[in-house]
């Protein structure tokens, strides 16, 4: 191939590479832009869905809280009304102080008062540290109840400045309309229950949820209650969005600027007898959503760097993969060679782990010991010779000495030289033993013959010397 052809092909390859990079960059740019747009839309829709669920839960919980508060009042009224009925049926002789006190104790009341229509106490029974004089506001309420008897009873709650001091005063007109029964009882349990169930407490708790900026209940007359200071807000009539939401039966949402912060506002109509018809307004923070939107520009700036980074990572990965293939091939060759050399050794080598299991053994060891397969076997089961027990070998590994033993293997007496060493892993903790076995039977035989010949030679020399002396 000529130099001109090579240069032309190299120039073509470079152009192709540049074209591919440009195309990939454009595709990545378009894909990233579309992904950000879809993510922004989906994030906003998810936020709207969460806000809608939150607003529905708030309305449902508010209705339950109001119903619970009403039911608590009803239970308190029923309790005191039954006592009042009992008082109405009592004779005048029974309405004495001792009888009233006993009755108050029996029903866990502070006191029972029987008053005339002007609030003067006719008879009373004190059970617990209760004053014998009614508070001024209770007397005023008695007069008001008698003057305007739209309802025959009235339930009053007195909350003192000291914590834990709350008193119920229940006023009920007698059947004869000439007496008013006043029942005083501790209301601490009632106030605690009311505190944990009333709608204001509920709204304050729900407003503490992460991402909730505010919860407002707004009627046409103004703000009924709010989880935080709202400042100046447009009335429902002055805000077309709120007007439309009030006339609808679904939840509306919009982006709204609240105290210089952009929020997602969800508006739901709410109607219940205890409150005027109005709107629940829930503001959810858009900080997370805006952070995602603002990251779009930064992603576009970093897109080119990411593109080249991905290409570089790809090249490095390809290069490292080729190196791994080469290393694996070399490792396989070394392992194959090592295994061949290990099996062809005439010296027996075996590795035993800390549990006495044979984890590595060569063919020479099996031939010397006279067993067919020792791998994964229990050392003390394979070798019954006391000298070769694992505990005995550990002693020799500590002494760093060799052990010479004579065994009868397959009807043949063999002399073996055994060397033992510890296998040390992390923290210098012994993890097993390596046992090396030498078959020195022939060496011992040659050694014994050499010693015998040497002794015979010495005996010959001795005989020759004796003969010479003779």
- State Rg: 50 Å
Spatially, the strands of the biggest sheet line up as: 2-1-5-4-3
Report the total helices. 11
How would you describe the oligomerization state of the chains in this entry? single chain
- Hey, roughly how much beta strand do the residues contain? 15-25%
- Summarize the helix and strand pattern as letters: HHEEHEEEHHEEHEEEHEEHHHEEEH
What's the β-strand tally?
15
What is the typical, i.e. mean, pLDDT? Answer: 78
Uncertain regions: pLDDT < 50 for 5+ in a row?
none
Fraction of residues in H or I helices: 40-55%
What general outline do the C-alpha atoms trace? Answer: elongated
Largest sheet: 5 strands, antiparallel
* End-to-end distance: 104 Å
* Class by SSE composition: alpha+beta
Describe the protein in words.
This protein has eleven helices and 15 strands. β3 and β4 form a beta hairpin. Strands 2-1-5-4-3 form a five-stranded antiparallel sheet, sandwiched between helices. A five-stranded antiparallel sheet has the order 7-6-10-9-8, sandwiched between helices. The protein has helices spanning 3-89, 97-106, 136-147, 188-197, 199-207, 240-246, 287-344, 363-369, 379-382, 390-399, 441-469, and strands spanning 111-115, 121-126, 153-159, 166-173, 180-186, 212-219, 222-226, 252-258, 261-272, 275-285, 348-353, 358-361, 402-409, 412-424, 430-439. The longest helix has 87 residues, at 3-89. It has 470 residues and is α+β, with helices and mostly antiparallel strands. The model has no long low-confidence stretch (mean pLDDT 78).
């Amino acid at each position: 191939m000529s130099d001109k052809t090579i240069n032309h092909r190299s120039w073509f390859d470079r152009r192709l590479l540049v074209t591919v990079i440009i195309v990939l960059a454009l595709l990545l740019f378009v894909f990233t832009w579309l992904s950000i747009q879809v993510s922004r839309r989906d994030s906003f829709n998810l936020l709207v869905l969460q806000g809608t669920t939150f607003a529905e839960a708030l309305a449902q919980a508010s209705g339950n809280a109001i119903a619970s508060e009403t039911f608590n009042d009803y239970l308190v009224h029923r309790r005191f009304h039954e006592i009042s009925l009992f008082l109405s049926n009592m004779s005048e002789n029974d309405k004495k102080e001792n009888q009233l006190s006993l009755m108050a104790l029996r029903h866990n009341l502070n006191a029972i008062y029987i008053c005339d229509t002007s609030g003067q106490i006719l008879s009373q029974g004190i059970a617990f540290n209760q004053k014998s004089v009614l508070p001024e506001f209770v007397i005023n309420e008695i007069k008001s109840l008698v003057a305007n008897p739209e309802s025959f009873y009235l339930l009053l709650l007195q909350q003192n400045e000291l914590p834990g001091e709350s008193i119920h005063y229940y006023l009920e007109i007698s059947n004869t309309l000439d007496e008013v029964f006043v029942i005083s009882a501790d209301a601490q349990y009632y106030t605690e229950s009311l505190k944990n169930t009333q709608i204001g407490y509920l709204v304050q708790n729900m407003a503490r949820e992460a991402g909730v900026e505010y919860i407002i209940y707004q009627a046409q007359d103004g703000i009924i209650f709010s989880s935080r200071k709202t400042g100046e807000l447009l009335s429902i009539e002055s805000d077309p969005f709120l007007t439309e939401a009030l006339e609808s039966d679904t939840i509306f949402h919009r982006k709204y600027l609240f105290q210089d912060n952009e929020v997602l506002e969800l508006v739901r109509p709410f109607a219940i007898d205890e409150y005027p018809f109005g709107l629940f307004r829930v503001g959810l923070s858009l900080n997370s959503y805006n952070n995602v939107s603002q990251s779009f520009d930064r992603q576009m700036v970093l897109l080119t760097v990411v593109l080249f980074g991905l290409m570089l990572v790809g090249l490095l990965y390809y290069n490292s993969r080729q190196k791994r293939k080469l290393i694996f091939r070399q490792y396989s060759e070394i392992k194959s060679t090592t295994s061949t050399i290990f099996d062809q050794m005439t010296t027996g080598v075996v590795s035993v782990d800390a549990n006495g299991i044979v984890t590595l053994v060569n063919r020479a060891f099996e031939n010397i010991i006279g067993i067919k397969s020792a791998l994964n076997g229990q050392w003390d089961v394979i070798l019954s010779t006391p000298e070769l027990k694992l505990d005995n070998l550990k002693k020799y590994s500590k002494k760093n000495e060799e052990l010479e033993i004579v065994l009868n293997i397959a009807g043949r007496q063999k002399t073996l030289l055994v060397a033992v060493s510890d296998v040390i892993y992390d923290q210098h903790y012994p993890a097993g033993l390596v046992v090396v076995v030498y078959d020195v039977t022939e060496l011992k035989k040659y050694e014994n013959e050499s010693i015998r010949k040497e002794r015979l030679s010495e005996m010959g020399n001795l005989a020759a010397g004796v003969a010479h002396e003779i």
